[in-house]
Amino acid sequence: PAKFDGIEIKALGHLHDDISIVHAYSAASVFVAPSLEENLANTVLESLACGTPVVAFNTGGMPEALDHKINGYLAELFDSNDLAEGIRWVLEHPDPQSLRKAARKKAEEMFSMKDVAGQYIDLYHELLEKRSYQK
Questions:
Q1: Among residues 129, 65, 130, 118, which one has the least CA distance to residue 55?
Q2: Global pTM?
Q3: What is the pLDDT at residue 135?
Q4: Distance CA 32, CA 83 (A)
Q5: Distance between CA 51 and CA 18 in Å, rounded?
Q6: What does R_g of the chain's alpha carbons equal in angstroms?
Q7: Residue 131 gets which letter from DSSP?
Q8: What is the pLDDT confidence band of residue 54, given thresholds at 50, 70 and 90?
Q9: Packing angle, helices 18-27 and 42-49, rounded to 10
Q10: 83, 55 contact by CB (below 8 A)
Q11: Strand, helix or coil at 56?
Q12: pLDDT tens-digit profile of 78-90?
């Protein structure tokens, strides 16, 4: 395995099935999403669902998914040193299991199919009410 700054790096290649992807997320200590512009990345949600903390720039939809220093780290936009600090913070966290539990909890609370379906139903009702007021 390759090393970068003393950290072991393993290239996984292309993952072809959901089980392999879940195993990869779950085996990781941290998922880094260094996008400078991002709405709400599926990879971030997938990582949280697998209980893997995320480090990302504080941009777009990232603050909706990440609770700073609870289930990951939100770095100052464009500040690569802060992004690196976030990675270090997660890797050196004294209780990594608490980060993993918080990541999974966030995914379950905000992004479960039941909750998302409920949000769509609420939106449809709201739109129907607005439409009936316009008539």
A1: 65
A2: 0.82
A3: 61
A4: 9
A5: 15
A6: 18
A7: H
A8: very high
A9: 70
A10: yes
A11: strand
A12: 999 999 999 999 9
